[in-house]
Specification:
Layout: E1 4-6, E2 18-21, H1 41-51, E3 58-64, E4 67-73, H2 76-85, E5 88-89, E6 98-103, E7 112-116, E8 121-125, H3 131-144, E9 151-153, E10 155-160, E11 163-168, H4 175-179, E12 185-188, E13 192-194, E14 199-201, E15 205-209, H5 219-231, E16 235-237, E17 245-249, E18 268-273, E19 283-286, H6 289-297, E20 299-302, E21 314-317, H7 330-343, E22 347-352, E23 355-357, E24 366-368, H8 371-383, H9 392-406
Parallel strand pairs: 1-16, 2-7, 4-6, 6-8, 11-18, 18-22
Antiparallel strand pairs: 3-4, 3-5, 7-8, 9-13, 10-11, 10-12, 13-14, 15-17, 16-17, 19-22, 20-21, 23-24
Length: 407
């Protein structure tokens, strides 16, 4: 299979074009209407009929977290992307719990992402952006799993020095880069589930940024990409736009875990914020209500290219560090987080992957924390070579100042 370079339109996700349908949509949080909207049944029926007039050359089946998916797409590039990101099985399509119909040929004025929660059908058209399938699956998983007391998380996961570690953050804030440290063993770079028994990957592939990729600063990702090129399983998305990404199976990552590996519970949790103002310290240990509030607000900066129309750094709040993919009320997810933090006595840290004040107060100079420094802070926290005192009050005070400016 050849490597693929694809210039997509749009160059990011289109969450403003996502609609939910069916009686089960009563559980969808309509307090975040920029991401969660209820559509009219007739619109779903018409779009489903439109998509039904096309032939779908690629039918792919996979299972994740006990949910069976069948993806039907007309596009070989997107089929390869699905093969990279999930473990394909030979399960009969008629046995699927959820069906995804994906079409890049249909002519629409704008993208459509329709999620029918009763029919368990996801329809995608009018976009060639690769990540739309990936995040469509994640949206479904985030709706289904809380009913099973499983915590779906927009985070990366890795082991280090016999500890299991989770790293939450909005796309582009450093989850993939930081969790792919050569000293860590990668579990997954973006989507993880935490049940009462263990932690497991939702995906079995990676979706790493290509900007600034080098052997010196991103050794694990760089070598994984080279292995993917040799195997012919790499999808390079939008090579000339901000936040361009590379897709490859986790099997291309040296010393990574596979889907069959069983893992324990988290010892350490890291929240990442790309603080554009340089208010937060490089790392802070937090506990109690500060953990919940940071998770529920998800204060950070959104990076260019993560969504359609985002062309510069933008300060935002993204509840659960992944609001576009979390259909249920935020508290449904934060309750699951706090239950597990308390039950397993997890250490929780806030890590600023953004800016710091250089000390030149007269001109307000800020610089971004060097990657090596951030990695050292995280390792020190895990190693406990340099103990961190609980700074929850200070962090909460800074958070409140930032939120006042934002709103």
């Amino acid at each position: 299979m050849p490597n693929i370079s694809i210039k997509t339109n749009p160059t990011g996700r289109s969450p403003e074009n996502k609609y939910f349908f069916g009686n089960r949509s009563i559980a969808v949080d309509l307090g975040r209407p920029e991401y969660n909207r209820i559509g009219k049944q007739k619109d779903f029926v018409e779009f489903e009929e439109q998509l039904g007039t096309f032939e779908y050359a690629h039918v792919l089946n996979f299972e994740t977290c006990g949910i069976k998916f069948c993806v039907k797409t007309n596009d070989s590039r997107h089929a390869q992307f699905v093969c990279n990101m999930f473990t394909i099985t030979s399960v009969d399509s008629t046995d699927a719990d959820w069906t995804i119909v994906h079409n890049t040929d249909i002519k629409l004025d704008s993208p459509k992402i329709y999620v029918h929660l009763d029919k368990k059908t996801l329809l995608i058209g009018g976009t060639t952006f690769l990540g739309e399938i990936k995040k469509g699956v994640f949206t479904v998983v985030n709706f289904e799993l809380p009913e099973r007391n499983i915590f779906p998380m927009h985070c990366s996961a890795f082991t280090y020095k016999e500890t299991v570690n989770l790293m939450f953050g909005l796309s582009g804030t450093g989850k993939t880069t930081l969790s792919s440290d050569p000293d860590f063993r990668l579990i997954g770079d973006d989507e993880i589930a935490w049940s009462e028994d263990h932690i497991e990957m939702i995906e079995s592939g990676c979706y790493a940024k290509s900007e600034g990729l080098s052997l010196e600063t991103h050794k694990t990702i760089f070598e994984s990409v080279e292995r993917a090129r040799q195997k012919g399983c790499l999808v390079e998305e939008n090579p000339d736009v901000p936040n361009a990404r590379l897709s490859y199976p986790i099997s291309c990552v040296d010393n990574a875990y596979s889907k069959k590996d069983k893992l324990g519970h988290a010892n350490n949790i890291f929240f990442l914020t790309m603080d554009a103002e340089g208010k937060f310290p490089a790392i802070s240990k937090i506990s109690g209500d500060t953990v919940r509030q940071l998770f529920e607000t998800g204060y950070t900066s959104q990076m260019p290219g993560t969504e359609k129309g985002v062309k510069e750094i933008k300060r935002i709040c993204s509840p659960c560090y992944g609001s576009p993919f979390m259909p249920r009320p935020v508290k449904a997810y934060s309750d699951l987080l706090m239950q597990r933090v308390e039950k397993y006595n997890c250490n929780v840290y806030l890590v600023n992957t953004g800016m710091y004040d250089t000390g030149y107060w007269f001109n307000g100079d800020t610089k971004r924390y060097p990657l090596g420094y951030t990695r050292s802070c995280i390792k020190n926290a895990i190693n406990f070579d340099m103990p961190y005192d609980d700074t929850s009050k200070q962090v909460n005070d800074i958070l409140q100042q930032c939120l006042k400016k934002l709103y």
